[in-house]
């Protein structure tokens, strides 16, 4: 079972496995089993596994298995009952395989939390492999692959490393999208080769959306957006644990009227102080509006949403509040509603109080910081109004060097991690296994 967020290469990994093993690859989507007619789903499962046995040795891959492998129970009528019957047949077929069958069953999902436990027990999908978003070395390796067919005068190894540093949190699919967008932008500009400017524009397009040249703001709105983004930039500049700033823009993109691009490092553990600094930086836009205009606008809605989520996570999920204590309650996923709270009403009230207190404390701290740096905010805002985009070099020119050490290059990010390249070496027992692999490889088979 391949687990992980969308776009990390679960399906690609399954296809690559079949290619390396030099065996037929049978692929099917979990949703293809489900039909409105009773009995069709289980019948398709039987046919699929029969095909796999016929073509053995082979690899059978079920993509998006959560469509058919959802937990049983609850409602038991209509389509839900048919889904359970299909799952039951899948469980039976999985039990029918043994070590002599020579069929490997792979499956992929990004929702392992909703899968039936019987599907994951030993003997079925007992080997679960998490496929995360790549780290900076992984991103550099993926960029090298996607840069190969592109025409550019830049050194592709250096370019891959630089792009890896500029794209924290990107998945393999995002990286492929960036390279494709860069080629399209270069073609629109009638360039013979892709340069660094095209790649930077492609990253902006993937991160923040398309540039809206027709979205003309009134002078008053443009000034508000400039001071809002300047508030973010200055707050982050003088907070130790805020992410290093890369670029600030007041050109409307996607849903936003402006945005700030940061360069966070690949980090897996966060302290209370680091999360608090990030909250303060996120509140910088709303605080700046209040200081300079004496009023607030709807422009901070997304910032407030992020701050609220962070505060709730610290209090409810990470046990970072003294009064609520060292407890961790499940939080609903994006787009889900929590029908029943896993804590009492009195605890719910305490959580609300502590979340508000944490956000208020962050807001007051940001107010104090931006009041002290009021002239700096005005400098940044006026430069933004003049040229619409300012870079890190402009920030250094206007505010001086950031008073905290920061990393910005690939070499600085990977320092102390052993090597500059990703370790892709094989165990001793696997180094020679496919040396004599046949040249003729069978074509993948699509289940119908």
UniProtKB/TrEMBL annotation:
Q: Which GO terms describe its cellular component?
A: m-AAA complex
Annotated InterPro entries: AAA+_ATPase (IPR003593), AAA_lid_3 (IPR041569), ATP-dep_Zn_Metalloprotease (IPR050928), ATPase_AAA_core (IPR003959), ATPase_AAA_CS (IPR003960), FtsH (IPR005936), P-loop_NTPase (IPR027417), Peptidase_M41 (IPR000642)
One GO BP on record is: mitochondrial protein processing
Where in the sequence does UniProt note compositional bias of the Basic and acidic residues kind? 429-440
Q: What are the UniProt keywords, alphabetically?
A: ATP-binding, Hydrolase, Membrane, Metal-binding, Metalloprotease, Nucleotide-binding, Protease, Transmembrane, Transmembrane helix, Zinc
Tell me the compartments it is located in: Membrane; Mitochondrion
Report domain AAA+ ATPase positions. 1-135
Q: Where is this region: Disordered?
A: 414-448
**Gene3D superfamilies in UniProt:** 1.10.8.60, P-loop containing nucleotide triphosphate hydrolases, Peptidase M41
Which family does the UniProt entry place this protein in? Answer: Belongs to the AAA ATPase family. In the N-terminal section; belongs to the AAA ATPase family.
Q: What PANTHER family is this protein classified in?
A: AFG3 LIKE MATRIX AAA PEPTIDASE SUBUNIT 2, ISOFORM A (PTHR43655:SF2), ATP-DEPENDENT PROTEASE (PTHR43655)
Protein name as catalogued: AAA+ ATPase domain-containing protein
